[in-house]
Amino acid sequence: MDRTEALARLEPNLVDQFLQAASKSDVLRHTLESLVVDPVTADPVTDYITDLDERCQLFRELQQMNFLRVAAICGAAEAADEDYEEPDDSDEEVP
Known about the structure:
95 residues, mainly alpha, two-stranded antiparallel ribbon, 5 helices, 2 strands, globular
């Protein structure tokens, strides 16, 4: 496991504490609802943050309880995911 992968791992308890604190903010709660920690591997899993560097940055911010930065990172990743369009492979003509 390299340093980047190590940064992406968190104690599930820390994530739970953050989510409890974030529950006081509707925006953060909605933004972070997709944050899940696999109970077996403790690997972080998210709906739309798939880039490992973004994920590591998110968890560094989680550890520092920096709510505004976490919301900004989640929002930027979500916007990038929404802008992505699947390539159109339908080059075949339909008779």
